Amino acid sequence: MGFSGVSGLCVLFVLLPRILSLDCQGLQLQKRLNKDALTILNAMAQERIQIVHQALRHISKIYSKNLGSVTWAREQVENFRLLLDRQLQELETCVRKPGAGSRQKRNSIILKYFRKLNKFLKQRRFSDCSWEIIRAETRARLQQLQFITGQLS
């Protein structure tokens, strides 16, 4: 290595700490911005978890209504309700995480939808036909919830 190579190397060693310090400041900003972005993404996931929880809670309430006219096996209905309760229990820990907010947000669209289903059941006097429609609606909603939870994983 000639003299110019050595002098170039010396210049690099003199300037390197300054260059790195500039990069480190940029890295610190990057770390802070990344942390802020993750906080926002986590809040968005928390909202989805609350939506899933709220929908499951409403489904559970519907299947606690007058089931006298359903043609389904009672054991299957009870197993279904137990599965809903288990899911709700599992989600409770996620919904009530520190920093998640002490008050659950209510999604008015979900609330209106399940009010309509309840009204439909009452108007049809909990007939077996109305329960079959509710079962089909429940199936569709559970598939949507499965999709949402799959996106959170």
Could you estimate the helical fraction of the residues in percent?
over 70%
Shape: rod-shaped
Relative strand content? under 5%
The average pLDDT is: 82
Sheet/helix structural class: mainly alpha
Number of strands: 0
Describe the biggest sheet? none
User: What is the N-to-C succession of helices and strands?
Assistant: HHHH
Contiguous low-pLDDT stretches (5 residues minimum) are none
Q: What is the number of helices?
A: 4
Distance N terminus to C terminus? 56 Å
Q: Radius of gyration, Cα only, in angstroms?
A: 28 Å
Give a structural overview.
80% of the residues lie in helices and 0% in strands. With 153 residues, the protein is an all-alpha fold.
Would you kindly provide a brief summary of this structure?
With 153 residues, the protein is mainly alpha-helical.
Question: Notable features of this structure?
Answer:
153 residues; single chain; mainly alpha; 80% helix; rod-shaped
